[in-house]
Amino acid sequence: MEDEGRRVFVAFLICCALIFTGCQKKEIRNTGSAGKVIICFGDSITFGYGVTKAESYPTALAAMVNIPVINEGIDGDTSTEALQRLDSDVISRDPLLVIVELGGNDFLRKIPEGKTLQNISDMVDRIQSKGAMVALVDISAGMLMKNYRQAFKNLARQKGAIFIPNILKGIITNPRLKSDFLHPNHDGYMIVAMRIYRAISPYINNKYKLVKK
Q1: Domain ranges (residues) in the chain
Q2: Would the pTM of this model clear 0.90, i.e. be above it?
Q3: What superfamily does domain 30-208 belong to in CATH?
Q4: Residue 28 contacts by C-beta under 8 Å, 6 or more apart in sequence?
Q5: CB proximity list for 137: less than 8 A, separation 6 or greater
Q6: Labelling 185: which of 57, 61, 169, 203 has CA 20 to 30 A away?
Q7: Is 160 helix (H, G, I), strand (E, B) or coil?
């Protein structure tokens, strides 16, 4: 009887875990997206500044998933500039998931944080209205852009977007993982790709099941 009771208890815990996981996934909007591609939308970190296109994080991510990955990063882009090309570079391409990595140039150019957040909020709304999922990427590191970290996390929660924190953790302070004072090198971008992969993997449709690692 003791063994039977233990089995029942274990089964109960498993059921609870499954229910909890299901609830977690339901918090992300458009998990049933019928889109055809993953779009990496951002600035120099997405573009792959400091390395070749073949060494950028979107290229590394493409090798990990069974779905096309498009790099729509532009070096130097602010959130305002990115918002202006959202329709042509993102929405028109029937995305399953859009990975939004922006804010660094806004910070460097001293664009008000509220303006940045409004731009990104508008992006999320427009992408989600077309049926795609959104992932918001946090590029803060330590005290650098600390306020953006919490703001992006809150925005992701409000909008039902995936939040991917700390993608530059351990990279920005390690010269062996950087091509300059800020941007990753090939090894650094591989780490970024893996962190993004781990965050998005629970939300990809079965027909686009991840295939590596």
Answers
A1: 30-208
A2: no
A3: SGNH hydrolase (3.40.50.1110)
A4: 133, 160, 161, 162, 203
A5: 42, 99, 100, 101, 152, 164, 167, 196
A6: 203
A7: coil
